[in-house]
Specification:
Number of strands: 7
Helix content: 40-55%
Structural class: alpha+beta
Radius of gyration: 31 Å
Strand order of the largest sheet: 2-4-5-7-6
Strand content: 15-25%
Order of helices and strands: HHEHEEHEEHEEHHHH
Shape: flat
Number of helices: 9
Distance between the termini: 42 Å
């Protein structure tokens, strides 16, 4: 997508410059030509963006409807009654999330149908701001385990999207299997830049942040000024700051 958009921008700009630099066109004609080229390029880029969005995202209801079309043939000649619960949401979800959820539900349904005594299966999607939860619930023997669902690539597919699989099996009553897929990418918290400093260096930095001078550090900590200078040099090196003021600002920002 990035490469295609880059080529489209390049083509549009080349056409604009060609018209504006032409020696055979007067100023008015060159301006009109550039305007036409820019308008056409914008229309094309907007159409391309719309096509990309159709590929990259799916409305939740449409994605579940596609799943239903896949599942119904699996129980067409079976005594099992399939109940479908579409998501009560108008939002769109990423295409890879929707595709993974459909594949997982199909795998889970096939596993459920292998059990004896299953007469009813409920399949539902629930979508919140943070996650899509695909649930498959049966009225079978209630003996399904994570080990029974290990084959088929369920765990591997969920791992790719940082999802999880939960199983609630009640013997004699049935099993509920839920595949949860995050809709937002979680960010790992930034590491604390002060963790590299030792206890004495942190003591020196705390006083540096208060605007104290080296002689005051030495008196308060009962160390020599040369030792204070050594600690200050370490403070500037480890967090990667360039001055005492920057180190003080970092201390205040973290503290």
């Amino acid at each position: 997508m990035i490469a295609e958009l880059g080529e489209a921008y390049s083509a549009a700009l080349t056409g604009l410059l060609g018209g504006l630099r032409s020696r055979t066109l007067d100023e008015a004609v060159a301006r009109a030509t550039a305007t036409d080229l820019a308008a056409s390029a914008l229309v094309e880029l907007r159409a391309e963006a719309a096509r990309d969005q159709e590929i990259a995202e799916e409305p939740a209801g449409h994605a579940f409807a596609r799943l239903a079309d896949v599942l119904r043939p699996l129980v067409r000649h079976s005594p099992v009654r399939l109940e479908l619960g579409a998501p009560d949401s108008t939002r769109t979800v990423a295409a890879d999330v929707a595709h993974t959820a459909r594949v997982l539900v199909r795998i889970l349904l096939l596993k459920v149908l292998e059990q004896e005594g299953v007469t009813r299966v409920q399949v539902a999607w629930q979508i919140t701001d943070d996650e899509l939860r695909a649930t498959v619930r049966d009225d079978g023997p209630g003996t399904l385990t994570h080990g029974a669902l290990a084959t088929g690539g369920v765990a591997e597919r969920l791992d790719v999207l940082r999802g999880r699989l939960d199983i609630d099996a009640v013997p004699g009553w049935g099993t509920t299997v839920s595949a949860t897929i995050p809709l937002r990418v979680s960010q790992d918290p930034a590491p604390d830049p002060l963790t590299a400093l030792g206890e004495r260096e942190l003591q020196v930095l705390a006083r540096l942040a208060l605007g104290h001078r080296n002689r005051a550090f030495a008196q308060e900590l009962h160390i020599s000024e040369s030792t204070v200078k050594f600690h200050v040099a370490k403070i500037l090196t480890k967090p990667g700051v360039e001055s005492r003021g920057a180190a003080a600002a970092l201390f205040h920002a973290v503290a």
